[in-house]
Design a protein that fits this description.
4 helices
Length: about 60
Amino acid sequence: MNKNVGQTERVIRIVAGLGLLGLAAMGQYTPWTWLGVVPLLTGLIGWCPPYAIFGINTCKTR
């Protein structure tokens, strides 16, 4: 698994994921809040499966 998510996008994904999970932790349980796990994990590991399928790479270093 080569990284295919750039640094700026990783930060955005982590912040968005934490924000959605924060809403879930505060009691606003919706499917959208629990989907915050996906951007959080892809931001932390730097690899996005759909990006790999479609050949997208926002990472400057290979």
